[in-house]
From TrEMBL:
Residues 262-465 form the Pyruvate flavodoxin/ferredoxin oxidoreductase pyrimidine binding domain. Residues 22-212 form the Pyruvate/ketoisovalerate oxidoreductase catalytic domain. InterPro entries: 2-oxoacid/accept_OxRdtase_asu, PFOR_II, Pyruvate:ferred/Flavod_OxRd, Pyrv/ketoisovalerate_OxRed_cat, Pyrv_Fd/Flavodoxin_OxRdtase_N, Pyrv_flavodox_OxRed_cen, THDP-binding, Transketo_C/PFOR_II. It holds the Pfam family PFOR_II. The keyword Heme does not apply. It comes from the Bacteria. Keywords: Oxidoreductase. Residues 514-583 form the Pyruvate:ferredoxin oxidoreductase core domain. Gene3D superfamilies: 3.40.50.920, 3.40.50.970, Pyruvate-ferredoxin oxidoreductase, PFOR, domain III (3.40.920.10). This is 2-oxoacid:acceptor oxidoreductase subunit alpha.
Amino acid sequence: MAEKLEVKELDQVVVRFSGDSGDGMQLAGNIFSTVSATVGNGISTFPDYPADIRAPQGSLTGVSGFQVHIGAGRVFTPGDKCDVLVAMNAAALKTQYRYAKSQATIIIDTDSFGAKDLEKAQFATDDYLGEMGIDADRVVACPITSMVKDCLADSGMDNKSVLKCRNMFALGLVCWLFNRDLTLVANFLHDKFAKKPQIAENNIKVVEAGYNYGHNVHASVPATYRIESKHKEKGRYMDITGNKATAYGLIAAAEKAGLQLFLGSYPITPATDILHELSKHKSCGVITVQCEDEISGCASAIGASFAGALAATSTSGPGICLKSEAMNLAVIDELPLVIIDVQRGGPSTGLPTKSEQTDLLQALYGRNGESPMPVIAALSPTDCFDAAYNAAKMALEHLTPVILLTDAFIANGSAAWKLPVMEELDSIAPHYVRPEQKGKYTPYERDPETMARYWAIPGQEGYTHILGGLEKDSNTGAISTDPDNHNVMCHLRAEKVAKIAVPDVDVVGDRDDAELLIVGFGSTYGHLYSAMEELRSKGHKVALAQFKYINPLPKNTSEVLKKYGKVVVAEQNLGQFASYLRANVDGFVPYQYNEVKGQPFVVSELVEAFEDMLADMA
């Protein structure tokens, strides 16, 4: 019978794992995406956490999801809807089925669909499939809990520990469905549980049981699937999240600049993983300090910068509010500092585990006084490395704090990343004092070309100086309340930022004759690019300009935005980037597409909205 089961080749597939927040769906999804990246597939992931610390078991609010889009070539988004949905309990099926395609294969644990489970999930009857209009022929109904208990009956594990392995059975079943090599899964588990080898072996045993279950009974599916990788650039690849890529970018920048890396931080969702990752790399000379609050995290980084380190601080939107006074100190002292804002849903504590782009105006203007800072927005999980590296380079070479905007979507999401070669990365040359300044150095003497001041490290003989929060004389560095001097200093600080050279914004698609130009910034790149490509496949002339450098804007910004008859600015806020562009480009009046849902854009909805705009032009 096994020989009769067809193996179909696919270009792409979307799988969504879902269950209680304690069911290990994030781990199962992470292993499956890592294995897929290892064999050369393009991947894009979207972990969708509940906001509850631990909701009641089986409740609708406690469902945790992990969606992964796997492709033979490059993948830009986690996908609008899934082809395979794993629902470990009734609540998961109730809340996650809306993310499944109409013909999706659904894998459920029938042991978690008892009367009490259905009641918690607010089903009215025991015919839960009928209530939701789900075709039973598309459902792989498997008693996962019972089978895992049988599999580990002789393991010596207690019942609670046994139940934690159910995610591995579901993973094994999905691996069978997509012809994944279990050796790669075993390698992952051996690495993860290196200090607990018996736990690794028990989990591997359950994965194999899930795989064998699918193989032996064919799990009610007509075929299994294989996604063959297309040509990929040679190199070493890994599955990496945006937060880890951000951490690696800072480490690489410190190495390139010949400096020690210091991170002063305070834990906050969804930025904490940057602190966790950097704390693992003491062997690279990285110093991490978990401070007592947000402002001290930033202030400690400023102290490290004054002492000559590459300094960074990481947080999310609420933490940026709390750091703002210290950030202003870095502005007036003109010290290099990388400030990472992993944006999340607001206002206040808002939606801690969800993603938005609502901190843009706060990053640009959310400080007292004239307080200009460069702002960079990463485009994807893998681009977080380049964005962090370039933010550090900008900070060190122009003596300025720099804000790096990421968000929960790309920070927790992952993609296949080609490891860079250090020798191929751009050089970083901190703007140090010069020998001829010895004995006559003043802290606000500037490079006439860039307007950047010169960085003197405490202890350098002949470069004694004082920095602080009070305004200083532009010539002597002494405290000054002179109105004309303050006016000069405000203009100098703004001019320094405005003079920073950034790459031109690139236009892709029908760049020469587009009827509609789509404009976005940061993490929406993959969704907007996919929408553009779908529109072009329908015969529309469409182009995309995605901004990574927000302040200063690329020099060709006005030229690009005024070139096209119709422009739409699409962003996950109520129009912050559109307002900023209107303020900086005379006569720019774009269409706007705004959502603040805490979820990534849906490509099909973008396409529909943009088609309506194209129809308005006809």
